[in-house]
């Protein structure tokens, strides 16, 4: 016996992601052009970072579209294509790690012989990037709390904003002190900022793929809520996992008291359980197996 509601998968944030994609492309083009003009590795590194982030936002949009179009359950995929968001987030994290390695290698090569770069142009490009990234953060802030892919895009824009700050600081040092070593150092800082974000995103993806219990769900508290309801004697084989962002699911075997003797009474128990899960634990997709007392012992014998 189960219960299902509609679930958000980031579709409501698609238009904002599209705007952020356009903004990211704008910063990418500006930084790439100015990097070519000035010879700045920091700008080139940040442009490469923006390329990865643009790819990440594009993947997020594609995953949300696929989930919306093909999200209906089928005979082979009972949850539709909701997991495409998780797969896109995984690829996004791997791309970010690859970019961090590329930036670090090229920055180290320049530490021994830092070429001259044009500081004022760097400042202008960094300022443009910072302003646009702040706008992107404002657009994605709300969605980052509801969708893993939107959160990934949000974290990327955070890194982009910090990267722009690093570019501006390096450009100021170059302009005022002629300290050209600031350029590869800023590049290393940008690489260092990419790694934690990528690792955090991949860790969250792994939690979903391993079907771990969501961080905001305490299984023992959940079990206590369920067993404390009228008509419920015990709960076993309790599992809670996540299909995609904002879509936690639960299954459990519920042992009912001897007083529950017909389907009408069992339905009342089910309604109480569903309300509890939806209201207190934000789990709207739940599946219950109703069992009479003593049935668990029979299950154990079958397993042996």
Structure, explained:
- By secondary structure, this protein is α+β, with helices and mostly antiparallel strands.
- The chain contains nine helices and four strands, in the order βαααααααββαβα.
- A four-stranded mixed beta sheet has the order 1-4-3-2, covered by helices on one side.
- Helix 2 runs antiparallel to helix 5.
- The protein is elongated, with a radius of gyration of 26 Å.
Task: Provide a quick synopsis of the model.
The protein is of the alpha+beta class and 304 residues long. Helices cover 65% and strands 10% of the residues.
Judged by helices, strands and strand pairing, the structural class is: alpha+beta
Architecture (CATH level 2) name of the largest domain: Up-down Bundle
Spatially, the strands of the biggest sheet line up as 1-4-3-2
The CATH homologous superfamily of the largest domain is called: Cation efflux protein transmembrane domain
List the domain count as a whole number: 2
Low-confidence stretches: 1-9
Residue-averaged pLDDT, rounded? 79
């Amino acid at each position: 016996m189960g219960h299902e509601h509609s679930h958000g998968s980031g579709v409501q944030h698609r238009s904002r992601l599209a705007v952020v994609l356009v903004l990211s492309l704008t910063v990418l083009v500006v930084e790439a052009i100015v990097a070519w003009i000035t010879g700045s590795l920091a700008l080139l590194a940040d442009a490469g970072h923006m390329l990865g982030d643009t790819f990440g936002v594009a993947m997020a949009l594609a995953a949300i579209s696929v989930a919306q179009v093909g999200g209906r359950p089928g005979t082979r995929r009972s949850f539709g294509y909701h997991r495409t968001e998780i797969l896109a987030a995984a690829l996004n994290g791997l791309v970010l790690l690859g970019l961090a390695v590329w930036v670090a290698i090229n920055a180290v090569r320049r530490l021994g012989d830092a070429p001259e770069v044009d500081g004022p142009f760097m400042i202008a490009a960094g300022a443009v990037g910072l302003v646009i990234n702040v706008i992107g953060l404002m657009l994605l802030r709300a969605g980052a709390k509801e969708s893993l892919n939107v959160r990934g895009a949000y974290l990327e824009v955070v890194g982009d904003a910090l990267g722009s700050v690093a570019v501006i600081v390096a450009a100021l040092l170059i302009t005022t002190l002629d300290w050209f070593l600031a350029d590869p150092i800023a590049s290393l800082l940008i690489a260092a900022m990419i790694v934690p974000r990528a690792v955090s995103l991949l860790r969250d993806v792994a939690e979903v793929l391993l079907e771990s219990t969501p961080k905001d769900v305490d299984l023992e508290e959940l079990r206590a809520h369920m067993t404390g309801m009228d008509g419920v004697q015990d709960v076993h084989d309790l599992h809670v996992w996540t299909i995609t962002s904002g879509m936690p699911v639960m299954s459990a075997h519920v042992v009912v008291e001897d007083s529950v003797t017909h389907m009408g009474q069992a339905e009342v128990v089910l309604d109480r359980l569903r309300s509890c899960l939806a209201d207190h634990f934000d789990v709207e997709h739940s599946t219950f197996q109703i069992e009479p007392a003593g049935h668990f012992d029979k299950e154990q014998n079958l397993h042996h």
